[in-house]
Amino acid sequence: MKLKIEPLTPERWDDLVDLFSRPGASIARGCYCMFYRRAGKHAFQPGLSHSETNKRALKRLVERGVVPGLLGYESGRAIGWVSLGPREDYARLARSPIMKPVDDKPVWSIICFFVDAKARHRGVAEAMLDGAVRWARREGVTLLEAYPCDKRGTSAEDSMWFGAKRMFDRAGSFRASAKMRIIQEGSPGANQLNHRVASYHSSPSRPRVRLPAGACDAHCHIFGPEAIFPFADNRPFTPADAPKERLFALHAMLGISRCAIVQSGCHGFDNRVVADAIAAKRGAYCGIALVPLTVPDDELERLDARGFRGVRFNYMKHLGAKAPIAEVIALTKRLAEIGWHLQLHFDAELIDDLAPSLSRSSVPVVIDHMARIDASRGRDQPAFRTLCRLMAHDFIWVKVSGVDRCSRQGPPYADAIALARELVDAFGDRVLWGTDWPHPNHTHVPDDGLLVDLIAEIAPSEASRQALLVDNPQRLYRFPDVVADKR
Residues 297, 436, 447, 485: which is the catalytic one? Predict the structure, then answer.
């Protein structure tokens, strides 16, 4: 892959903005490569979104003459980006148990890669790595450091923020010329893979809103502990442990007594981690499984007996391979026999393609996180209009979770709250709410207490909150009528 590699300068700033504004770049434009440049909590400017605050901060660096990374051009258009610079410029690295300094030698760090979604699978990231090494050598750098993923499976190498370990392995000649060292599992100063920073708030605020008895968190996950429930070999990401005990404690503090735990892709088709949590709550929690399209009927029945009530399929680019939607809809005939539902997670840009198939489902369909709409585009955007048309089918449900993901304004997510409230007002008997704890693959760490307080804006009346949090989940998940408080 031949690219023209150029440093990010004020004259090329608009090229980076254009690259980060394209479909598939939502995390990049939320972070603007400022995450590792900051340590501790950062006060975002009132009235500005996280994205805009980070964007302005990076632009100020560029205007001061700092080169925070390189752009890769093909036919005059930027299609790749790599962030690199002196290690001391990335304050957060010092707080990482994996990426903290291993010695006091002067070193530059290669932090992350981003490739235009339409240019992936073409070796762009490897070309950016080549360019990064050449740029560092030109700047007199004698030691480069990188923190790649050792991720196996079918994921594109250029979909990995830190770069793929196998890509760096192929670049052995670069190490010889630039003295590159790799910090990852088994390296000095590192005992885990690089993606082990907790994604959840360690001390969320206590909500002011009191939830109704039997309130349900209809969307959350559990990760590990890996020592007991190993992550899948082909996992799309490697999280820090977020075990059931932490989830239970959070729910107790928030006033939540029922829950639907969604199996995460990091555990693959091994649903034991969710089954373990369900068993601990004796009927108050249920599960949503991940299964292959070829799952046997007796396995579905076994999972049903253990408290699972549905199956989820992902169509998000960062979560790897996608099942053909026609085959997923065919599976719903078997799901109907055990009273399960189908849950789908997809990007808003896919909703028009998926909608005709979803309308043919044999079971209820639950759409995650308001179809991941871009809330800044408002209620008249095509994706939101399609979602509302889909909801005209009485078997289509939607989770008004993920306001923190749909928002482009940052907390308190007013742009997304307005759309969530519209869905609750129009389809109040088929809406669900969830925390999405522990908030994996996010642009920031949401405050779960704030998310609970925002329910009062999403569902302003007691009747609407009763439906959203109690009656609707009870009907869909088949919870017992009365659930004892086991907190």
Answer: 436
